[in-house]
Amino acid sequence: MAESEKQIEQKRVDKVVQEISDHIHRVATDYTEARAEMKRVQQNYSANTSVNYFEVDDRIETSAELQQQRALASRLIENEQILRRQLDTFHELEKSPYFGRIDIQDPGEAESERLYIGTASFTDEDQNFLVYDWRAPISSIYYNGTLGKVAYETPAGIQQTDLKKKRQFLIQNGEITSMFDTNETVGDEMLQHVLGEQNDDTMQNIVSTIQREQNDIIRDTKSDLLVVQGVAGSGKTSAILQRIAFLLYHSRDELEADQIILFSPNRLFSHYISDVLPSLGERNMRQVTLAEFVNQRLQGLTVESIFDRYERANDLSESQQQVQQFKESEAFMTAVHDYSQTLTPEHFNFTHILFNGDIFFNKRDIETIYQSLPNMQPAERFLQTKNKLIKQLKKRIDIETDAQWVAEEIDQLSDEDYRTLLGNKERGRFQQVDDEIHYIARKIITKRLRIVYDAIYNNYFLDTYAQYADFLANVDHPEISDSAWQAQLTAYQKGLEYHKTSLDDVAPLLYLRDILTGSGQNRRMQHLFVDEMQDYSVAQLLYFHHAFPKAKMTYLGDSEQALYSDVEAPDEILQKLKDAFHVNKARLIRLTKSYRSTYPITTFAKSILPDGDQIQAFNREGELPKIVVRYDEDEAYTAVDQCINHALKTNGTVAILTKNMAEAQAVYQHLHRDRDITLLKDTDRTLPKGVFVLPIYLAKGLEFDSVIAWNVSQENFPSSRDVGILYTIASRAMHELALISVGPVTKLISENIPNDVMRIEHAFTN
Ligand SMILES: Nc1ncnc2c1ncn2[C@@H]1O[C@H](COP(=O)(O)OP(=O)(O)OP(=O)(O)O)[C@@H](O)[C@H]1O
């Protein structure tokens, strides 16, 4: 491109940067003032809260004033936060104000218009757009359109225009480092540049190079269920994070970041993606792992983690696997639903409510209450039972006010405690002294019986675990023998004795509890995202849908990376979910191009898969993956050590990936004395720099500059069920991949991968 063109563009960049700097200056002044004002209000507030209240009138006045100050403080805090976020955004813009330019000519216009696109909008003093936000309707042309006639969606309907030019920029610290004109959606040159860079601790936003299919995912606002099936490294996670940023922009008035929830595969991942939204000027959505979600809902019970389950998968007998599959199916959740609808009162597992070890409400009486109510939905009937119990509790509180122990307790109250119990009521203003005493007595008893109230409120008078056991004992279990079914029931009950439960019982158990008690649903959540969906059972996904009934769903996954189950075809998955959720607008988007790895690594990884041909490798150069075969374990560790040395010459992060935790520990034990290496566990939240070792299930969704796969021998990867694991390991590597085998290499490699896509350091002997 002519140098003068670049100079012209650089001049514009300089001008815009200058305007942004001036603006930052102004906002910074506002920010300093906002902070000062907030400090003033806060000081005032704390001075007032330390006032000694001796006179009741003072107290009332002060509390009104305090409330006003509190409201003012929270407004000021919000204002300060907005200014803080604006400052952060403008500082980013100052370094790199935009990444794209489109020249468009609207119908009937004599001249074309030039628009620049960046991570946020920026206008000059006269409200002219110097930079358009990448999420603005007009910006979609940049991602979707090739030159010529194009259409784009606006709130007012579809608009037509003529796209005359599309230009991409790489601007760093206010300097254009490269610039290309392109007719493609977003040209490869820019992608080459960003993908060739070294891995950061956290994921980067991809707004400057979003691809057309990714853009479809990001800008979809119509689907109730959007399923994205994308090959490893195709940008699924990236796309959903930009999608969240897009939705927050698109529905700014109705949607808050905390109304979006994302299920992520592990804690390392949660941290890994945590910078993307803030880098786009948005707050993070809620993030949760399956373990965190279920543990929060089943407090007091230790739920087997998905990782524990993976670790013991090989120990399961065929009939245990059948049981597991049945419990994870839609049919099983339907059976739970049917059971809950036909359950008669005498089959409810009500339980006593105890107080100080004695029965306070007898389960027979609770059953009688339930029995006495007209037939209606279980949740409604349960709620009415609850209300009746609370009424009875109140009556009991009234009766108890005359008890001797209460009178004694009142006598022993200090003046201060007495006043605290009176609260807002004014001493001496009761009609009679007895009324005041009665009031205090009620307060004391209510406090004492709080535990009973909580038990009612939290539905503790239904033993949901026993109820679920009753369901298990009665449900039809076609294709599973009675003895196998009985064995699982015994195992469930035994687990309960130790306060433990297996993962496959969790979704049906919670579902049953929620239907019977009318609890567990969050209607505020507007969007539900599940990454690595292939690692969740249909039963779990159904439970999420039940738990967040108003949320639109976006599920992403790669059926080939199934670690915990068999591979399923994307269309089948969509159909299955569509049927299960009863949604109208369901859409499947496939991503087949892989961006993460070099061309040789993707070519190697896709050859592992039976239908890997559909994967397109991004054309980025790199070394061929290396297979190192050693027949002795010690020699294999030495080989790992050599591979690490080689990798560290050019790479910042080197991950040794193993099949399970035991192998990760063994590798760590052998290497940690002589080199700086970290063993990662499921409790870890951040990735260190340098060399680390971890089982593959903790590396889900992550990527590393260099990957060393530990022990890809036939013994360790014997069957076609291991394909998903091997593929997931290989596809974590961005720039370099080595695979170590102790003994003959798995046939998944030796029989499927052509010799010219890898380097072998030892001849195969199998
Ligand atoms: N359009 C893009 N522009 C720049 N980088 C991209 C783009 N799409 C994907 N990438 C990069 O490719 C890598 C893989 O992306 P991401 O992790 O989102 O893929 P994924 O499909 O979720 O992968 P996996 O299923 O293997 O975990 C990341 O480094 C991401 O930044």
UniProtKB/TrEMBL annotation:
Domain UvrD-like helicase ATP-binding intervals: 209-598
Hydrolase in keyword set: yes
One Pfam match: UvrD-helicase
Record-linked NCBIfam families: HelD_BACSU
Protein name, entry field: Superfamily I DNA/RNA helicase
Keywords from the UniProt entry: ATP-binding, Helicase, Hydrolase, Nucleotide-binding
One term under GO cellular component: cytosol
Domain of life: Bacteria
Species of provenance: Secundilactobacillus oryzae JCM 18671
SUPFAM superfamilies found in the cross-reference section: P-loop containing nucleoside triphosphate hydrolases
GO terms under biological process: recombinational repair
A Gene Ontology molecular function term of the record: 3'-5' DNA helicase activity
Binding residues annotated for ATP, in chain numbering: G230, V231, A232, G233, S234, G235, K236, T237
